[in-house]
Amino acid sequence: MNCKEIIEELKSQASEKYKANVVKMGIPEKYSIGVSTTQIRSLAKKTGKSNELAFELWNTGYHEAKLLAVLLFNHKDITNSDIKKLMAGVISWDLCDHLCKNLIIKMKDYKDFIFEWITSTHVYEKRASFTLIASSVIHDKKLSNDTVDTYLKLISDNSDNEHEHIKKAVSWALREIGKKDFDYNEKALLIAHDLIENGNKTQKWIGKDAMKELENVVKAEGRTRLISRNTKMGSTI
Question: Using the 8-state DSSP alphabet, how is residue 220 labeled?
Fold first, then answer.
């Protein structure tokens, strides 16, 4: 299918329920189709990888077309400059996280974006830096402890932004580091305590939000990472 045919296919699968959800996230109605992520992933499997088609879909402006485009990009053939252009067009937290977790994290130099965006004034660039930290701690098997320690410092030093979509990502990154193992659970808890005791209103919120999970983790057999006791598996340990 070409770009026009794909947009027609997305529109044929649209529902008012999903469209309302997209609009609630701040996407202009004219750029909202109303298709679930499950349907988008199914369409991506049928379409196959193509950077040319992915850019065409992205440039339509439709939210769902951008979500699909991310899945069609070949990470080996995309440049840092391309990523920056894509990020400039992100106006919602879900597309930010989708772009980070399905494309940027697969790139060889993804860490460069963490350090570049951590001080950005662009809401979703800044959120992306924390999303990438959270994702890398979970998925990057080659991540060194020195790098994780650096991430903890970045979190501590850049945790004062009150925007809802940023502070939630900060808490998420801190919690994922704290579930790496019990040593990092202790390190993450110390930062959470410090944010509560010495931080501003936003930092106190982050510390309290992270602590809800960090104080309640257990080690499950067969799992390399700690899990929350509030999960089904965690509650049996």
Answer: P
